[in-house]
Amino acid sequence: MENHHKKAQKGILIGYDSDNGYRIWDSNSFKLIRSRDVTFNENPLLGHFEEIDEPVAIQNKTADKNSNTLFDFVIPRQHECYTPADTSNIQQTLTSHDESIASSSQQDEHAAESSCAEIETASEDDVPEAETFLEAEESFYEPISEEEVSDVIETDRQVNDINESRPDRRDDSSLSASEIEAEGRMTLRDRSNLRPPARYIDFICNICMNGNSISDENRKEPSTFQEVMASKDFDEWKKAMDNEINSLKENETWEMVDLPKGRKAISSKWIFKIKTNPDGSIDKYKARLVIRGFSQKKGLDYYETFSPVAKTSTIRALLSIAAQENLSLCQFDVSTAFLYGKLKEDIYMKPPEGYSNNDGKVCKLKRSLYGLKQAPRCWNSTITEHILKVGFIQSEGDPCLFKREGKNKLLIALYVDDGLIASASSKETEKFLDEMRQRFKITTKCGSYFLGIEIERKVDRSIKIDQKSYAKKLLQRFGMQNCKAAVTPIVKDNVLASKDITDIHDFPYRQVVGALSYLMVGTRPDIAFAVGIVSRKLDNPTSEDVARVKRILRYVKGTLEYGITYKSSTVERGLRCYSDADHGGDETTGRSTSGMICLNANGAIAWQSKRQTTVAISSTEAEIIAASEAAREVIWLKRIMNFMQSNTQKEITPLFIDNESAIRLAYDPPYEAHQRTKHIRLKHFFVRQCVLEKDIKVEKVDTKNQLADFLTKPLFKPRLLELCKLAGAST
């Protein structure tokens, strides 16, 4: 019958073994075990090994006694923190083995005394109560150096030697044969030179012997409701969740009903976020209740999902006009915006986690909720209807751009629940904000930070935008904050130094490229070409591609202050555009790379670096393709800028090209060059149509003044800095 007895042991995962196994800390025997036969239970909190039975309601000491929420807040029962079974017996047992320890070398004796001292500190007086354990100042997942890891391993060996001679701690009958064999090998091996595998260096933890807790000095955003319960910032997260539930109640987001037969209730999840200021300080703790919309079925739970947002080019164009006309800026944010959208479909949701509901009823949604597939569309329809109702006009070029004409013009760019206001009068701004407060709950800030873009108004009324804070977080996120800066984002040739090659399996290639793309789209045209190159290898990156990405990060490290400046002077006020092409620049496909950049107020408002879709057989063909793509962007930019400036006059926008043959093709039919141009698709002659309608005029520019040159090929530092400065994209 012994074969049917329980042989499993409970422990804590502290790392990974180099031999395809796990490193488990046994808190009962004070031993480090290596095993491959491990079953993980992620539900209990760290140091709690009992099953969580049923939730027990508690009252938060910091909660407002008069607060009124939809549900009663409950959390899982707080278990006792780890306490050594009998510390007096431990000390007696350790004392009885002083002679055996003293007979070892002086180094072993010192290590054993250190181990005893650590265990002696785990007295019952030193162990915190269950109620205060969550507020302990120990933090989680604190990285340690390799020297500290060696010290921990050496101390482990001494503790193992002590415990092996303790009959009250050794119970081989409860161990499997494989684990006994593994422990035998572990005690015989020389572990003094062991080092953690390099690929798992980020997972190394510090073990706190007195509480089996893992510490981290930095504030972490919890990913689950259970992590919130163990967070030292529990009071802040509790307040954020209560605010979310109260907001849901005020908006009458749902009603409690019985689940109809044949319908399935969708579950929800808490999302926790720490919002920071531009300087990195904490702004507020935010908890968002999100429904798991991936469970929705099209045609039953939703129909249409598309919802527009303001394009970044629109936002930059608005800022350039604000610099030209000296408009004041203001930013507003709609709190719990999606809750204002009205649903047309019947959707049922399970009660939120942590808030009690014992009658078996479910939530029938009356308004949209974060996570629903149609939630953005419902919200956009609601706010658009309200803005039009108070006297605004919607742009045809960008449905999220609005204007109210009158004595003092007011412009609004809307990005989901964030809005940027530009107005010639502060009274007009306050009037609009009051109109918004009548319908929505909003918060306002001065126009210095919008969508991660920092906006600085200088003394000469010019406006500079940059993403310095975002770039710093990006470097820190991927461990490149202490890297050596590079002078260019990409090397001119394909030769990469061997020190730049790394193991691609350890590098989050997609995440880095995605983060760099947001930086490039916002305020950094100088990295557009380099990001375009590395974006072509998302599915199968090589070590060379990883080296290119790391070089971009090093370049960002050295150019954190880079941004775009829009000047208020009358010089170079109007819209102008440059287009260029690098014929056959892609050696793999033979395709050319198009580059385009548009400026207003002497600063870049739109740019593009894109590999062409077809192979051009000549540089003229590549240039005319790039010019047609630039012409399309110019037509759209003119439409939204005329809307914002109330410009009724039809102005001709210059398009600068450095290829004379392409300029001739833009003005005249290619009769004299029929043999060389007859194969070019008609769509690439769109630029000629724009010239005939006098929307643009194609002009010649010297190659040294071709601003789009850095968007088509790698350049050396002096040339890159020169062109970026001319485009207003520098410090």
Automatic annotation (TrEMBL):
Pfam families: RVT_2 (PF07727), SH3_retrovirus (PF25597)
Compositionally biased tracts (Acidic residues): 140-153
Domain of life of the native organism: Eukaryota
Any one of the GO BP annotations: DNA biosynthetic process
Every Reverse transcriptase Ty1/copia-type domain range: 251-492
Region listing for Disordered, in residue ranges: 140-184
Retroviral polymerase SH3-like domain residues: 6-43
SUPFAM superfamilies noted in UniProt: DNA/RNA polymerases
Biased composition (Basic and acidic residues): 154-173
Name under which the protein is recorded: Reverse transcriptase Ty1/copia-type domain-containing protein
Source organism (scientific name): Arctia plantaginis
Lineage: Eukaryota, Metazoa, Ecdysozoa, Arthropoda, Hexapoda
